[in-house]
Amino acid sequence: MPALVLLGAQWGDEGKGKATDLLGGSVDYVVRYQGGNNAGHTVVVGDQKYALHLLPSGILSPGCTPVIGNGVVVDPSVLLSELSGLNERGVDTSKLLLSGNAHIITPYNVTVDKVTERFLGKRKIGTTGRGIGPTYADKINRVGIRVQDLYDESILLQKVEAALDVKNQLLTKLYNRRAIAVDQVVEELLAYAEKLRPYVADTVLVINQALENDKVVLFEGGQGTLLDIDHGTYPFVTSSNPTAGGACTGAGVGPTKISRVIGILKAYTTRVGAGPFPTELFDEDGEALRRIGGEVGVTTGRDRRCGWFDAVIARYATRVNGLTDFFLTKLDVLTGWEQIPVCVAYEIDGKRVEELPYSQSDFHHAKPIYETLPGWSEDITKAKTFEDLPKNAQDYVKALEEMSGAPISAIGVGPGRDETIQINSFI
Ligand code: GDP
Ligand code: IMO
Ligand code: MG
Questions:
Q1: For 103-198, which CATH class?
Q2: Ligand 3 being an ion, which residues bring their Cβ within 5 A of it?
Q3: Out of 21, 39, 379, 400, which could bridge 43 as a Cys pair, Cβ 3.0 to 4.6 Å?
Q4: What residue owns the CA closest to ligand 1's atom 21?
Q5: Which part of the chain is CATH 1.10.300.10?
Q6: Are 355 and 424 in contact (CB under 8 A)?
């Protein structure tokens, strides 16, 4: 019963979509377990480029059943338009399964996300504005709307009333906005019910039965370890658990079932939105990483902040996720630098610190301590084996592996499916 978790080891956008798609051909189910359409996963198949936000990247592999698990927050309008967009391009989406326990991102959750950010002013998180945080807040406050509620009109009405009771007070009295009408929300949500019905399933049962029948199940994380609500750079995080444990709660599988945890790790670092980022570059190197790496957000179109590789963060990701492997992506982007600095530790208040400090105040003024590794100038995008890489690129990978605490089992040398060096098999 191979159950693999594939997740981001940094601040998101590590190339999870490509890695999931690559495995899609040999996997029976791909399950998203947290997050929502704040994710933006780019997958390149041949000359076709797909941007997925809510759907698991396995949707592009014909033999694979894509599943949206209970831990995901679902904007029905986004889901339906993503499905029809793929159908128009000839992708069969009929196998999709959607958990009846997944929470719905309602229009008022999106409004609250936007007004809260505006209200925070310069203290804002820089969210994607997709209603993610407020929807998870409703879930925890026990006033959330679940997919299954769409099939019981009177319950839906009561729940929307309960959810809007306090929110309308806040919207009108604090944020100076118009109140949101219960009937209008209920009507909008009911309009999605029949369109979504073919996909709704008891996904926990399906996934566990698949594992019992020796099917291969891949759990695809959105966002990344440092954006985790518990283990990330709080409060500059998302509102779910992208870390490995999130796969268990967000899909309904026991930890004893998970056989492998693969961390997707970019050969340098990026982050979108506000929050600390020790190796961030503000010079022409940062500009070059952004340009060569195409580091512009898939969801919001914002420029990603760029910096050198941070081994402290990679070690942390190994620890909190129990990583068994790394998939190193975008090594090709570093081609052409004579020297490549890598952060091996931090300096905090004049002291060398080897591990991620648990204190936010320390992390906010951590200064990177760099080791510089020799670069390479040869084109590596055609490399098929580790030995095809120039010696300095091999040494860079080996150094990162040594510092990060788990074997690098695959290396991305370009955005395409076939631009990958597989060192150890994942299944
Ligand atoms: P995700 O959110 O983790 O799925 O990552 P994104 O799709 O937001 O960002 C990763 C970007 O890098 C996408 O544009 C991918 O097509 C691209 N990409 C993935 N792996 C590689 C690689 O090895 N080399 C290059 N050059 N691009 C890659
Ligand atoms: P993928 O799956 C990068 C960031 C936002 C913001 C913070 C909170 O493509 O890796 P939210 O809307 O989730 O409440 O915003 O998290 N963020 C991401 N950054 N990649 C993502 O997803 C992200 N999803 C959310 O920029 O800083
Ligand atoms: Mg992304």
A1: mainly alpha
A2: 13, 40, 298
A3: 21
A4: 415
A5: 103-198
A6: no
- The reply to whether 41 belongs to the active site is yes
End-to-end Cα distance, the chain: 10
Could you tell me if 323 and 261 are in contact, meaning their C-beta atoms sit under 8 angstroms apart? yes
Which of 18, 23, 32, 47 for mutating ligand 1's site (highest number of atoms within 8 Å of CB)?
Answer: 18
Three-class DSSP category at 162:
helix
Q: Is 332 a known ligand-binding residue?
A: yes
Residue of 8, 100, 19 whose CA lies nearest to 60: 19
Q: Which of 83, 79, 321, 31 is nearest to 204 (CA)?
A: 31
Encode the chain (427 residues) as per-residue pLDDT tens digits. 689 999 999 999 999 999 999 998 899 999 999 999 999 999 999 899 999 999 999 999 999 999 999 999 999 999 999 999 999 999 999 999 999 999 999 999 999 999 999 999 999 999 999 999 999 999 999 999 999 999 999 999 999 999 999 999 999 999 999 999 999 999 999 999 999 999 999 999 999 999 999 999 999 999 999 999 999 999 999 999 999 999 999 999 999 999 999 999 999 999 999 999 999 999 999 999 999 999 998 888 899 999 999 999 999 999 999 999 999 999 999 999 999 999 999 999 999 999 999 999 999 999 999 999 999 999 999 999 999 999 999 999 999 999 999 999 999 999 998 999 999 999 8
What's the 296 CA to ligand 3 centre distance in angstroms?
Answer: 9
At 78, which helix (H) or strand (E)? helix 76-88
User: 388 among the known binding-site residues?
Assistant: no
273 is in an annotated binding site: no
Ligand 2 atom closest to 275 (CA): 27
The CATH 3.90.170.10 domain(s) of the chain lie at 3-91+203-422
Kindly provide the b/e burial profile for residues 143-155, where b requires at least 16 CB atoms within 10 angstroms of the residue's own CB: bbbbbebbeeeee
Ligand 2 pocket check for 43: Cβ under 6 Å: no
Determine which helix (DSSP H) or strand (DSSP E) holds 83, and give its type and residue range: helix 76-88
